[in-house]
Amino acid sequence: MKKEFIITVYSENHIGLLTRITIVFTRRKINIESLTVSESAIKGIYKFTIVIKETEAQTQKVVNQLEKLIDVLKAFYHTNEEMIYQEIALYKVPIEPIYESDAIEKIVRKAGARILEITKDYVVIERTGHKEETQALFEELNKFHVMQFIRSGRVAITRDPIERLSEFLKERDAFLDSLD
Amino acid sequence: MTTKRVTGSEALILSLLEEGVDTIFGYPGGAIMPVYDALYDYDKRVNHILTRHEQGAIHGAQGYARVTGKAGVCFATSGPGATNLMTGIADAMIDSTPLVCITGQVASPLLGTDAFQESDILGMSIPVTKWNYQVTSPDEIPQAIAQAFYIANTGRPGPVLIDLTKDAQFGELDFEYKKCTKIRSYVPETPVDPHAVKEAVDLIDAAKKPLILFGHGIIIGRAEQELKEFIEKTGIPAAWTIMGLSALPTDHPLNVGMLGMHGNYGPNVLTNEADLIIAVGMRFDDRVTGKVSEYAKKAKIIHIEIDPAEINKIIKVNVKVLGDSKKALKMLTYNAKENKHEDWLNEFKKCAEIEQEKVINRDLHPVKPGLTMGEVIRLASEKSNHDAILVTDVGQHQMIAQRYFKFKHSRSNVTSGGLGTMGFCLPASMGAQIGAPDRKVIAVIGDGGFQMTIQELGTIAQNKLPVKIILLNNNFLGMVRQWQQLFFEKRYSFTELQNPDFIMIGKGFGIDGHKVDKREDLESSVQKMMDHDGPYLLEVVIEKEDNVFPMVPTGASVSDVILEP
Q1: Same CATH fold, A86-151 and A3-82?
Q2: What is the ipTM of this complex?
Q3: How many CB pairs under 8 A join A and B?
Q4: Does A19 touch chain B (CB under 8 A)?
Q5: CA dihedral B313, B316, B319, B320 (to 10 degrees)
Q6: What is the fold of A3-82?
Q7: What is the pLDDT of residues B148-206, one digit of tens each?
Q8: In B, which residues are within 8 Å of A179 by CB distance?
Q9: Nearest to B459 by CA among B64, B9, B30
Q10: Domain A86-151 adopts which CATH fold?
């Protein structure tokens, strides 16, 4: 059965790696639902967070093939339940309805969103949360005709108490030293 | 360490020499001219083979790599030169062949501008290389080359491509070389886990009908002796994939033959009777497994493999033994009990007798007038004392050659296994001959594949490579025609060829040869070819519509192998 999996890839920061990683998915005709890349807590090591809808067996094979890439240090996969994750969304809403009633203010309060910028023409509202939550806010705000809407890729951390990457790097260094 | 001020191009050549490179296959062009200029001063220390096409260069490098176990090296220019390497790179990737491909590239300020002969070879080669890298500054060259060889040769080997911009070739650096011994993000092999070995040994000792399936991993891991010791102690029959062929001598009593679509009857049928499958250095290719859902259902599976991504990829395994095949087999042999499986072996013998009667006699000792591919292969093997390097192309002749050529020594079978690249044989045979100058190299090619890279006859002639070329000519793309006959109601859609006078073409390139179409002349013809000093082209006109059997039809189970039409 297909369901959402969050794949985390730790890699060296080398040109072309994004293509190498995405090819592992496109080759198996797997659509990437969301992709976020940024430097991890450890300098020089980058973290890819990739969301796909797939079977666990297929996800496992993809993760094995990701780990096979020369510049990839480690890849993991998790179910949504095993991770804490967020996406961020920005909404640009025209200013008039705010002058006219407190409806938007109520929506913003209820959703725990915040206002980033107010101009004479529009306000920009920010909300973080799961996709359903940012989508729900979009539906609410769109009654007032959202001018622009953007949602980020997902960022996620595990519920594990330990930082897996630093543990892993220690093990890897010790292992490579043992080969000398 | 002393340093020397050199150009990027010279640094490249010096780096290759540091890696022990003695042969380069290549083709010059605009964007790699500085490298060729540097090469001019080193022609005493490294042998450059000028091919007639870049595809010839890369297949040559593959042939060299397969017989020597060393990374093959090839040069090509940017744009079309680089893209012409692509088929060979993909071939090397799927057959785990170590290659270092060096391509020229337009100067770095021109990158991305659609400059003359610019192609994004880095982007294009990503899916088919183990690793690739673009060098835009001369300082990067020594390290890039060191990493390239380390990655190409270690773990599960594969092709690596280094793209050198022209300004990096012209620029200068202080040359200093340090071999690469590790890369933080890359673990070439995991140490063999003794617990996994224990689990495997328990299954091996308990099995009544165990079968070993071995592949290229035995040859790559130089584990031929360990394989032999393992099967001799445990008494387990061993069957091979075509990439594993020659790792175990043909006449070894426990060698039960070839797996897969055109493999031997016994190993296919009995795969589905076995209670234990021990797969070593093979990857359960679909041509080997047939219908996966009906594959080896009665067996527990042990998979000994260096590449973790192969585990459970096709066949779910009971015990995985990750790591080097040589080390793993040594540990298994040490721990497993001595055993014999006579009844089980007898089942293979019975199958072999059935196959002998229904297929092999007809192939090797035909009574009908037309010549068969099988009798030609049998003679070629006999006349070379079963001790030649066999290089094959792709199709019917390939399957027949894999079935009937005999081997005494490992690294003697060079073929395009995973990708099935027509045109592979002729250039690969010259690489094999250069890699093994003291051995007899026999290139067996069909009339289709021969015409895909026929221009390499020029390279063979220029370098006086004594390759013995056997052209099996049925004026058909035989394997496709066979499928059309069996599965497409004999609708022979575009498979018949109007062929040229091949012997005249050979002579035009300066290669002697002759054509034979009668059985009474065949043996003396093969003998004449073997005795000839230098390259020789023997064209054998064979029966037009012969088929290769046994056959596991696509999508059928291995036990549904067909022995005759």
Answers
A1: yes
A2: 0.90
A3: 51
A4: yes
A5: 0
A6: Alpha-Beta Plaits (3.30.70)
A7: 999 999 999 999 999 999 999 999 999 999 999 999 999 999 999 999 999 999 999 99
A8: 181-182
A9: B64
A10: Alpha-Beta Plaits (3.30.70)
